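Colleagues,

Please find the record for the three-part complex below.
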Amino acid sequence: MTLIKFIEIMAILVGAFSGFIEARRKRMDLVGVFTVAFITAFGGGTLRDILLDRRPLFWVIHQEYAILIFVLALVASPVIRTLRHIVSERLIVIADAVGLGLFSVAGVSAALAAGMPLFIASMMGVITGIFGGVLRDIVCNEVPMVFRDGKPYAICAFLGNWLYLMMGKYGVEPDFALWSSALFISGLRLLTWKFDLRMGR
Amino acid sequence: MTLIKFIEIMAILVGAFSGFIEARRKRMDLVGVFTVAFITAFGGGTLRDILLDRRPLFWVIHQEYAILIFVLALVASPVIRTLRHIVSERLIVIADAVGLGLFSVAGVSAALAAGMPLFIASMMGVITGIFGGVLRDIVCNEVPMVFRDGKPYAICAFLGNWLYLMMGKYGVEPDFALWSSALFISGLRLLTWKFDLRMGR
Amino acid sequence: MTLIKFIEIMAILVGAFSGFIEARRKRMDLVGVFTVAFITAFGGGTLRDILLDRRPLFWVIHQEYAILIFVLALVASPVIRTLRHIVSERLIVIADAVGLGLFSVAGVSAALAAGMPLFIASMMGVITGIFGGVLRDIVCNEVPMVFRDGKPYAICAFLGNWLYLMMGKYGVEPDFALWSSALFISGLRLLTWKFDLRMGR
């Protein structure tokens, strides 16, 4: 398994895991647990692809990820109970930050490939990174957490997306631009988490 | 009128009817009653078609169904009051079960025609069958009922969709596969309703 | 700047402004304020374009409007506080009515260009005019206001859309049909507001 494949699976699992937890908190049944986990993991990329009119969707090409979440949903309750003891909050935040970086920059890249102008491309990257959680909260009948907790989550993605766009503009080698921007987002997110930074309201 | 046309109209009416009732319970006005009924009746198929990038949408081709719901919304209050006395819960559950079977399998069939792999096709069938109600509940600001009541509604659709897919794989005559799978879903749904089966949480 | 450009910007600003206010009422942070304003301003047209499979989206072509809302979100709190004192409710209602008229008829026109039948085209116009507010309310975890306040907001759009469709059918000059129908919607909306008309429930 390549490194990127491993990171991808980790990021999807973290998304699905946060969906599992939210769905259980809402006392949902098996169908709800699976659907909410699925929406959290793939919702951001799916919305981006609908806005860009890109097909096939990510989870259609990678059917195996959809099946993985399905299997996990079937065993969700004991898995979550076990994971709660094994997995520390620190590990979840790290994996989530890595996912945010990777998916945001990948979203920008997809938007550029579809011919989007720069500002729109930066927004598409943020949408890819955060709208899984937004849709999860809407389905769970909550005001989306990312819109109200004042933590600079989307803003880390936004800044890193512009780093990536600027690198592209000034001829930096594409692969390096992608990885360093993703790393920048993940690092910035972890720093703001470490020091518990908040935006003013 | 052919049989399939009749069943189709019945299924749409049942969807719209459940939208009417939910919208009235939320004290919505005429615009809300129409919109929620429309979303309940056509939301599942519309979401599927957006995900598959299929156009024109069902209710664009069959404009007459949209107009029918519009007219019903105009007379909704007295109609619902009357129907409550005429239509038994049993009849609604039966019509809804028939609709679930028919639309789910039709959703799988549309997904296969769009080149989807098997698991995705089975999911598209479930989406077609249940997301009208999911979107209704989101617009009405509720946690979707189908995600939390523990009744095996989506699961009946899922199992029947796989029956249909397996029949296709083993060369069963398409029309027979479609009808028997739809019947299987409707029958299973009615059985689980009859015996009030619940999934564990 | 042409007149239509000016009206367009006014209508978008009014949409964004109502998003700002709702997001602040929900105590959202910068990310929420921007996203909700954006969804309110562009949500209706975006949903219409997704249903019609039209691309690029309006806010992709007019990136400058997205940037404008972004800048306004950055200064939203003081701006809203200032605007509250400068801008009367009357002015907001007028600008909103003008936007409703313009966007509804533009939505019908886009739907006709995409080959939609008449009733569907009239619905697409209403969707363009009202779904920004509907999506705003869903994200803010409220039952959409336009579905429950009994004010004939969507109905003004619906009637004006049919005026436009009928003018087209009877060979009225397209530009005149568009402007007079938009004016009809705006005027009707202002009249019903002036006399505080309500629909029965």
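The interface with chain B takes residues 50-53, 115-117, 119-120, 123, 130, 134, 138, 141-144, 146-150, 153-155, 199, 201 of chain C (CB under 8 Å).

Comments are welcome before we finalize the supplementary table.
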